[in-house]
Amino acid sequence: MKRIYTLIFLLTTIMVVAQERYLDKQFQVQVETNVVYGNNISILNPNDIKPIDLLMDVYQPVGDNNDARPVMMIAHTGSFLPPLFNGGVTGARSDSTVTYIAKELASRGYVVAAYTNRQGWAPQAMDEDVRRSTLLQAAYRGIQDTRSCIRNLRRSVAEDGNPYNIDDSKIGVVGIGTGGYLALGSGSLYNFEEVLLPKFINTQTALPYIDSTVLGNIYGDTDAMLCLANHPGYSSDFNFSFNLGGALGDVEWMDGDPREPMYAGVHATNDIFAPYGEGPVIVPTTNEFVVNVAGTWAAINEANNIGSNDAFSGILNDPLADLIDAQKGRTFPPPGAPDGFEIPLGTDNFYGFETPFPEGSPWDWWDKATLDAVVAGTNAAIGTMFDADVIHMSSLATNSTMSPEKGKTYMDTIFQLMLPRACVALELACTGVLSTEDLVEHQVSISPNPSDNDVLIETGSEIIRHISLLDMSGKLINNLRHINSSTFTIQRGLLSPGVYFARLEFDDGYQSVKFMLK
C-alpha cells in the first residue's frame, strides 16, 4: 500500500538569491513509499521461491515547477540479505544514510528513487564454491533489478504521462556499501562473457556460476527459470555512478564502452568487508573468503585511466581538489596486508576516508530504540529470536563512535565530491562548475564561425578525447564523450542562437574555443 508523507525539515544554510539548483538546498521534500517498479522471482526463502514485487521510495522536491528533473537512484547496503538476517542494523530503504542522501538530493531539485533489489545467498555455507556462486548470483540479480528500475522510470515517462516530471536522459545511481556493487556493475557489465572469467567458474564442476538460461540475461528483460522479463524495449543505460564503499566484480568489466557512465566515489581505508583496491570479499557474519574483486579506489582509478571520467577534468573550485591531490602521493597498508605491503591511497574523482581499524562505513548511523522495536516486531511476526543488544554491539564493532552528527559530517564531504561531478555527468545547467581557462594552447580551428548550422573543429594532429559545451554564462549544455579524433563536428540540433564555449579535453590538458551560432 502506497503512503505519501511530506517531510519538512530545516535547511542547514540560509536561502539566498544566488542559490544554484542541484548544488544548494532550496526545496522541501515529499516521499511516496512502496512504489512497485517491477516483479521478479525471489530465492530469499529457498523453500518458497516465488515472484515478489520490487519496491522503491520516490522523493520529490515540493514546489518545484521543473518538468524535466534529473534522477538519482539509491541502492542500499545489506550484504544481499535483509537487516537483522545479515547480522547487522542496516540493509533497507529506511536506513538513515539512504533517507538522508535522498532528502538532501531532492531538496536540491533531484527526483530520488531509493530501491530494494532481490536478496538472498548462502554466506554460512562451508563450501567456498557455494558461498561464491550464491553471492555472485545475488549480485547478478541486483544488477538486473537496478536496470529494471531504470527501465521502469523510462517506461513511466513513455506510458504513464511522466508522473514524477523527470528527464529520463539524466539518471545517476548511488550505491551504498553492497549497493556499490550494483552502481558499478550496472554501469559496466555490457558483455555476458565478462561473467565467465576464470574466477567465476566453479572449481569443482568447471561450470560457470552464472547461467543465463536459469538467471536470465544481464539486463533482466528476458524470461528464464529464475527471471521474469521487466520492461523490455527500454534502455538500461545511465550517466553517473557514485559509490560509498562496495566494489566491482572485476576491473575488466570497465572497457570504455560509450554506454558506460562516469564514475566517482569514496571508500574507508579500514573496510574489512570490501577491498579498497583489489582484494577479497569477506562474509560479515563468518569472516570467510568469497571472491577477489576491485574496490572503489581500483574501479574509479580504472575509469580514470580508460577515459570514462575525462569530462571531470578541470572542475572549477573543486572543494576537495587539494585533499585529493595530497592523497594521490601517498600509500597505506590495507587491513590484513603483510608487513611492508602498501597500496595507493588516492586517485582523481575519489576520496579515501582514513578510518581506524575496523571501521568501514563511518557514514552510517542508527537509533537503538528503533532497533529494539524492529527486532521485537520481527520476532513476534515470524518467530525469530534476534537479540537487539547483540546486533547493536556487533554493528558497533565496525563503527564504534557512530552518531547522526558523525554520519552527517562524513556526508558533507561526500556531497562535496558528488554534487559538482553529478552536474557534469548528468549535463545539468550548473553555473561555473567547469573552467573555460586554457591549460594548453594547441592549434585549433573552428568553422564556420559564426555558423548557421553545424560547426567543424579541427586540431591537426592533437587528439580530442572529450568536448564539453557551455553557454556564455558558464552553464554546462552537453558532454560529447569518447571522441578520440583530431576532428569533430558539433551538430547544431536544438542549440539556440548565441555564443558558446567548446571545452576540448586533450591528453595534456584542456583548451576552450569560442563560437557563435546565428
Low-pLDDT segments, ≥5 res: 1-17
Number of helices: 9
Which structural class do you get from the secondary structure elements? alpha+beta
Largest sheet: 9 strands, mixed
SSE pattern, N- to C-terminal: EEEEHEHEHHEEEEEHHEEEHHHEEEEEEE
In total, the number of strands is 21
**What is the end-to-end distance?**
54 Å
| Total tally of structural domains | 2
Q: Please, what is the average pLDDT?
A: 93
List the strand order in the largest sheet: 1-2-3-5-4-6-7-9-14
Global morphology: globular
Oligomer: single chain
Helix content: 10-25%
* Radius of gyration, whole Å: 23 Å
How much of the polypeptide forms β-strand, as a percent range? 25-35%
Structure description:
This protein is of the alpha+beta class and 518 residues long. The protein has two domains: 3-425, no CATH class; 445-517, Macroglobulin (MG2) domain (Immunoglobulin-like, Sandwich). The chain has helices at 96-106, 128-159, 179-188, 212-215, 296-305, 321-328, 368-382, 388-396, 404-425, and strands at residues 3-7, 28-42, 50-62, 69-75, 111-115, 166-176, 240-244, 247-248, 262-268, 278-282, 289-295, 331-332, 343-344, 350-353, 445-447, 455-458, 466-471, 476-480, 487-490, 498-506, 509-517. The strands form five sheets. It has a nine-stranded mixed beta sheet, sandwiched between helices. The chain has a four-stranded antiparallel beta sheet with strand order 18-17-20-21, with helices on one face. Residues 1-17 have low confidence and may be disordered.
